[in-house]
């Protein structure tokens, strides 16, 4: 972009350029793989050494090296505002995906993205990735679920959870159907998920609650399974959510504030790390 006055420099190098920019590049790196991504960047730097380059030049090199149409995919992220929420529901072994623009206000936008979806099935050893290129799409995941020959019925139930957006590498929020969310709560309780994914599930559910996309009761059910959490980052988020919910409730339904405060205190006191966190 052209700079006409000095103060326009700050507008060109803002949070959108740096924070959103780094987020979408990390998402792309996760989708195409670290090794290929690094190889593409090396090729890009050599080609444009001692000269100028545009955003499109980087996408062209990445497309050339990977064989993927990176231009069209990344244009949907860099040339329109906002980011999506991906709704996912399960029907038998068919996963139903749908995207829409996420807005904290609760309104629905018209944006549409080409979204690199990553997901795992009951284990980080069972991973699937694909591009969601339309408003909605179904995925047959039958081959990725454990078979009855591999595990007995009880073990199968524990291994049937699904986590979308592995490692929170994608620049989107995830809204799970009730059944999938119930399985995830059990997986968190059993300690099957990584710290990053546990944080992401809580962060997404809270944001969806603020946007009136999910109920407060569903958020409270999720918070309850973090009772034994000991990770500092997750506990910090959990405490922030407690304070924010109480702040809203104090104005909306003041007579319930004390009861909810007792629930939050009970959840937090179960954590072994809480005394250290509060010092």
TrEMBL record:
GO biological process, any: peptide catabolic process
Signal peptide extent: none
CC annotations in GO: cytoplasm; extracellular space; membrane
Entry-linked InterPro entries: ERAP1-like_C_dom (IPR024571), Peptidase_M1_aminopeptidases (IPR050344), Peptidase_M1_dom (IPR014782), Peptidase_M4/M1_CTD_sf (IPR027268)
Domain Peptidase M1 membrane alanine aminopeptidase span(s) in chain numbering: 1-77
ERAP1-like C-terminal domain location: 161-266
Pfam families per record: ERAP1_C, Peptidase_M1
GO molecular function: metalloaminopeptidase activity; peptide binding; zinc ion binding
Domain of life of the native organism: Eukaryota
PANTHER family for the chain: AMINOPEPTIDASE, PROTEASE M1 ZINC METALLOPROTEASE
Protein family per UniProt: Belongs to the peptidase M1 family.
Protein name per Swiss-Prot or TrEMBL: Peptidase M1 membrane alanine aminopeptidase domain-containing protein
Organism: Gossypium darwinii
């Amino acid at each position: 972009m052209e700079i006409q006055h000095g103060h326009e420099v700050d507008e060109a190098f803002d949070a959108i350029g740096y924070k959103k920019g780094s987020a979408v590049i990390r998402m792309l790196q996760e989708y195409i793989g670290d090794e290929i991504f690094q190889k593409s960047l090396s090729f890009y730097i050599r080609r444009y050494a001692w000269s100028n380059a545009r955003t499109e030049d980087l996408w062209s090199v990445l497309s050339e090296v990977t064989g993927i149409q990176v231009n069209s995919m990344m244009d949907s992220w860099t040339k329109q505002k906002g980011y999506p929420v991906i709704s996912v529901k399960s029907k038998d072994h068919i996963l139903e995906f749908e995207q829409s623009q996420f807005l904290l206000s609760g309104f629905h936008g018209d944006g549409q993205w080409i979204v690199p979806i990553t997901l795992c099935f009951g284990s980080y050893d069972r991973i699937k990735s694909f591009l969601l290129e339309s408003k909605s799409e179904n995925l047959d995941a039958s081959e990725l679920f454990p078979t009855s020959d591999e595990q007995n019925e009880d073990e199968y139930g524990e291994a049937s959870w699904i986590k979308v957006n592995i490692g929170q590498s994608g620049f989107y929020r995830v809204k799970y159907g009730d059944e999938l969310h119930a399985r995830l709560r059990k997986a968190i309780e059993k300690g099957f998920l990584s710290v990053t994914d546990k944080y992401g599930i809580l962060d997404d559910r809270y944001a969806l609650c603020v946007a009136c996309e999910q109920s407060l009761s569903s958020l409270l059910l999720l918070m309850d399974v973090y009772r034994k959490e000991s990770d500092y980052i997750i506990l910090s988020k959990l405490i922030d959510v407690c304070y924010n919910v109480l702040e809203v409730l104090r104005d909306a339904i003041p007579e319930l504030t004390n009861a909810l405060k007792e629930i939050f205190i009970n959840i937090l006191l179960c954590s072994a790390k809480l005394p250290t966190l509060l010092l």
